[in-house]
Design brief:
Strand content: over 45%
Number of strands: 12
Distance between the termini: 40 Å
Radius of gyration: 21 Å
Low-confidence stretches: 9-18
Mean pLDDT: 85
């Protein structure tokens, strides 16, 4: 992780003097997509799906919980920034969907095993609070804004989906359950700015270890792409 963030810090604190000195505040709304996956020793690419009856009720589970296959995710939120000469402060609040996937090798019902090859999808919803420090640069008529920050993201809800290839079982899932984590992440990224429009690219490096992994060594990784429109763009005196 040090190798990843050192160039960002070096770049941020050695900006060329061509950076512009303009004080202003902005406020915008954003929406986008991206990829997320679980990382660490307790994450897996494959799992088995178990189905059994207890007290006349159907129960199901998987042998592994956290998948390291990336899944498409979405986000939408608001961003406020204050520009103070060649440095600035910002806060982004987002509703996010994150998670990871695994390949279901087999369906196991009691002592019977059936090969499958379907997908198990573990998704979670978060409310993300991401304060940042950024360093705006002028590039002709546009701007580029590198940023670093810390993200706090309480878990709102989790859901599981089984996309089984076996025609006898099909696709189904459920949502709900106990909120297990409050995510802490290191974030870095940049924005391309053209007038009031911004294209944002952000990487979120999760530090929180997820429970119910075998050795509590599953963490979340996220890459987000979104488009932001500044409703407010006001210069300060």
């Amino acid at each position: 992780m040090r190798k990843f963030y050192l160039p960002v810090l070096v770049f941020a604190f050695t900006l060329p003097q061509t950076g512009y000195a303009q004080k202003k505040i902005t406020f915008g709304i954003s929406a986008g997509s991206g990829l997320s996956w679980f990382s660490g020793k307790d994450t897996y690419r494959h799992t088995n799906y178990y189905q059994y009856y207890s007290n006349a009720e159907l129960h199901d589970s998987v042998s592994n919980t956290y998948g390291n296959i990336p899944v498409a995710v979405t986000n939408f939120g608001i961003t406020a920034r204050i520009f103070l000469n060649r440095i600035g402060l910002g806060i982004t609040i987002q509703h996010e969907f994150q998670g990871g996937a695994m390949i279901i090798d087999s369906i196991i019902i009691h002592s019977n095993r059936f090969q499958d090859g379907g997908r198990y999808l573990h998704r979670r919803q978060y409310l993300s609070f991401n304060p940042t420090i950024f360093f705006p640069l002028r590039l002709n008529k546009s701007e580029i804004i590198p940023q670093i920050g810390v993200d706090y993201a309480p878990d709102l809800e989790q859901s599981y989906m089984y996309k089984l290839k076996n025609s006898n079982y099909g696709t189904y899932g459920f949502s709900g359950g106990i909120n297990e984590v409050k995510e802490i992440r290191i974030t870095s990224g940049f924005s391309f700015v053209i007038e009031r429009w911004l294209l944002n690219v952000v990487y979120k490096h999760g530090l929180t270890r997820y429970p119910n992994s075998k050795n509590n060594k599953a963490v979340l990784r996220v890459i987000q792409f979104n488009v932001l429109y500044n409703i407010l763009d006001k210069k300060l005196k």
